[in-house]
Amino acid sequence: MKTSICDQYGIDFPLFAFSHCRDVVAAVTNAGGLGVLGGTAFTPEALEQELNWIDEQVRGKPYGVDIIVPAKFEGKGEKLEAGALVDRIPAEYREFVTELLASHDIPDDHKRRVGGSSLSGDTGEALLEVALRHPIKLMANALGVPPPYMIEAGQSSGVPVAALVGAREHALKQVAAGVDLIIAQGTEAGGHCGEVSTLVLVPEVLDALAEVGSDIPVLAAGGIVTGRQMAACVAMGAAGAWTGSVWLTTEEAETAPHTVQKMLTATSRDTIRSAGRTGKPSRQLVSDWTNAWAPNPGGQKPLPLPLQSMLVEPTLRRIDKLAASGHPGAQELATYFVGQGVGLMNKVKPARTVVLEFIEDYLAAAQRLSDSVPD
Ligand SMILES: Cc1cc2nc3c(=O)[nH]c(=O)nc-3n(C[C@H](O)[C@H](O)[C@H](O)COP(=O)(O)O)c2cc1C
């Protein structure tokens, strides 16, 4: 394909792949798309190692880094001492998790620690410094307008800044803040998402940008796991697709093994948008864990970001390990971020194959569109 976004980013096919796994990032980039490493959960030292490895694998081909710096979070601007946020987790919430585990035959692990959260936003600047020492072609941010240091770093380094949005008005705020690329992410998406579907959000955002005279490119995201869906979004005016879920069941992904099995058999109705993982609504696989938290009827109201993820992430990791060893209660509780496209993800494949299938499916869809237009 030759489109302006392909020229701008030096890619063959405008398929952007968000993944926490460096192997997926390198495989997508080497197959002609653009891999984006989710960097938030790494320490700056670990991110440096991951990016060194990617540099060796892609040898100058383009890739990006995503660093979430939430615009709003508990404790923001209070300059808290380490551990002070932990003290804000009420005792009854720790008790609630203990009881939920007990009801699934999982004894409380007294070593279980609530701990720091990668969503507290406090490592964002250090991670960005590391990323900018590498030949990245894109930096992305989610959960609000990027912090001024990210916009400034983008301007001074010439690396475009992308922002995820789930609503028309958020796209306008991002344009006013100076981002270079909008990712219009519908509610179908895995991870944090809004309430508007991709099919409605993409044209809404494109129209809103046109009204303010902005021609910055818009990528479509949310539920896109095939080339035909990508073609539909390009037909609506998107410059390409930004994807996350589809890489979770690739050979390269580091998704917990039991969760992969759940994803392969899940239907598009087996996800829920719940704040029970991070404190902000995010789409995940339905499980006994998500059922225990609001908005599920009778569920516990989650704590705000990042307290909820500080409370639950170590436990969810322990659940994954127990589920992998065959513990039935843990298998009922196991969950992970994934979008509604999970219903179409039925086979483990190499990431490169996923890209090649996207291209084939995209071309067939484009042909169907073209055939539908009279000569
Ligand atoms: C497991 C997982 C983790 C995610 N984590 C982040 C993240 O750290 N930063 C971010 O900007 N987006 C994150 N996202 C959202 C993706 O960037 C992307 O917008 C979304 O996956 C697109 O929808 P899809 O899952 O239907 O492809 C995550 C998505 C998934 C599935």
Stretches where pLDDT falls below 50 for ≥5 residues?
Answer: none
What is the C-level CATH assignment of the largest domain? Alpha Beta
Count of β-strands: 11
Q: Strands of the largest sheet, in order across it?
A: 1-2-3-4-5-6-8-9
The small molecules bound here are: flavin mononucleotide
Protein name: Nitronate monooxygenase
Organism: Mycolicibacterium hodleri
InterPro entries: Aldolase_TIM, NMO
GO molecular function: nitronate monooxygenase activity
Concise account of the structure shown:
The chain is of the alpha/beta class. The chain is 40% helix and 12% strand.
List the helices and strands and how they pair.
Elements lengths: L3 H6 L5 E5 L2 H9 L3 E5 L5 H15 L4 E4 L24 H12 L21 H8 L6 E4 L6 H10 L3 E5 L2 H10 L3 E5 L5 E2 L5 H14 L6 E4 L5 H9 L4 E4 L13 H9 L5 E4 L7 E4 L2 H4 L15 H18 L3 H6 L17 H21 L4
Parallel strand pairs: 1-2, 1-9, 2-3, 3-4, 4-5, 5-6, 6-8, 8-9
Antiparallel strand pairs: 7-11, 10-11
Helix pairs in contact: 2-3, 3-5, 7-8, 9-14
The structure holds flavin mononucleotide.
The site of flavin mononucleotide has 26 residues, from strand 9.
Explain what this protein looks like in three dimensions.
With 375 residues, the protein is an alpha/beta fold. The protein has 2 domains: 221 residues, Aldolase class I (TIM Barrel); 112 residues, no CATH class. It is 40% helix and 12% strand. The protein is built from 14 helices and 11 strands. The chain has an 8-stranded parallel barrel, surrounded by 5 helices. The longest helix is centred in the C-terminal third of the chain and has 21 residues. The radius of gyration is 20 Å and the shape is globular. Bound molecules: flavin mononucleotide. The site of flavin mononucleotide has 26 residues, from β9.
